[in-house]
Amino acid sequence: MDQTDILLSRMEDLAAKAEKTGSAASRFLTPAEAQSVSAFFKHKRVAIMLDGGFDGAERVRAVFLNPDWGEYERADLFTALKIEYRQHDTLGHRDILGAIMALGIERDTVGDIVVVQNTATIVCLPELSGYIVENLSKAGRVGISVSEVSLEELLSRQEELEEKTDTVASLRLDAVICAAFDLSRTKASELISAGSVSIDHQQCLQPAKEVSEGALLSIRGIGRAKLLEIGGTSRKGRIFIRIGRYDRK
After folding, report:
1. Residues 147 and 178 reside in one and the same domain
2. How far is CA 169 from CA 65, 179, 191, 215, in A?
3. What does the alpha-carbon distance between residue 227 and residue 60 come to, in Å, rounded to a whole number?
4. Do 61 and 84 reside in the same domain of the chain?
5. pLDDT per position as a tens digit, 227-236
6. Which domain-ending residue is among 98, 132, 153?
7. Which residue in 174, 203, 209, 235 has a CA-CA distance of 20 to 30 Å to 100?
8. What pLDDT is attached to residue 63?
9. Measuring CA to CA, how many Å separate 38 from each of 80, 86, 134, 153, 203?
10. Mean per-residue pLDDT for 149-175?
């Protein structure tokens, strides 16, 4: 049984629980896990909601509902925490995640971590919020303060995109990631073969896979980009594309 089968088996247990009790929720799922779960339960009797505590969240909980009488409140499933630190200190997503993991907290109990200027917000399971507030005082050498805030204070996830236009000979994956990440064709092929490249959170090992407009491209350890627009063709037959590269915090 592979990891996807194990995941879906756990989700089926939660769906069965929801049918009896009205609702049940998973821990936080990665985007790829959420996609697999959503597709698997698309035509099942039990209803499923994917919710990360705020609009635009990447890591979400699968909430199963009995359509006859199940319902849920976000405040029962999510707690929002705000982290603050001094203006001259610099922290990124990895710094804060590392500090949380150092407390012995499992990754799937914490949702998105959004860093903006000198504050960060975390969404976590409600039962963990008190422990994090009491014990998370440093990220590396940087002193931080943590407080609980209402979910309403969380804004939709807004990520800045650095846009550029380019041309490609085709919409093959290797060609598009070359343009998006300024890579050589050889390097792009190596990354794809190594399993480091994903399209819409799904690993892709096929360099010739055609990329569609709106696709999210990610390369492990390098970053993410989105194919925003596919335009016309040049006189030499090359395809115009507009790409958005996500700012890495």
Report:
1. no
2. 47, 11, 20, 18
3. 23
4. no
5. 999 999 998 9
6. 153
7. 203
8. 96
9. 25, 41, 35, 28, 17
10. 84
- Which whole-number Å values give the CA distances from 198 to 16, 161, 203, in the listed order? 32, 18, 4
Domain boundary residue, one of 153, 187, 216: 153
Q: Are residues 174 and 229 in the same domain?
A: yes
Kindly list the distances between the CA atom of residue 157 and the CA atoms of 52, 108, 126, in Å, as whole numbers in the listed order: 11, 19, 20
| Residues 233, 199 share a domain | yes
pLDDT of residue 50: 93
Which residue would you say has higher pLDDT here, 190 or 92? Answer: 190
Domain count, the chain: 3
Q: Which DSSP state fits 42?
A: T
Q: What is the pLDDT at residue 153?
A: 79
The arithmetic mean of pLDDT across residues 130-146, rounded, is 94
- For 10, the domain range is 3-74
Residue 55 has pLDDT above 90, yes or no: no
Same-domain check for residues 38 and 82 = no
Q: Is the pLDDT of residue 60 over 50?
A: yes
143: exposed, middle or buried (C-beta count within 10 Å: 0-12, 13-18, 19+)? exposed
Q: What is the pTM of this model?
A: 0.72
Would you state the structure tokens that stand for residue 89, as one six-digit string?
Answer: 């200190």
Of the chain, the percentage scoring pLDDT greater than 70 comes to 96
Report which DSSP code applies to 156.
Answer: P
Query: Which residues neighbour 189 within 8 Å (Cβ) at sequence distance 6 or greater?
Result: 174, 207
CA distance 220 to 196: 5
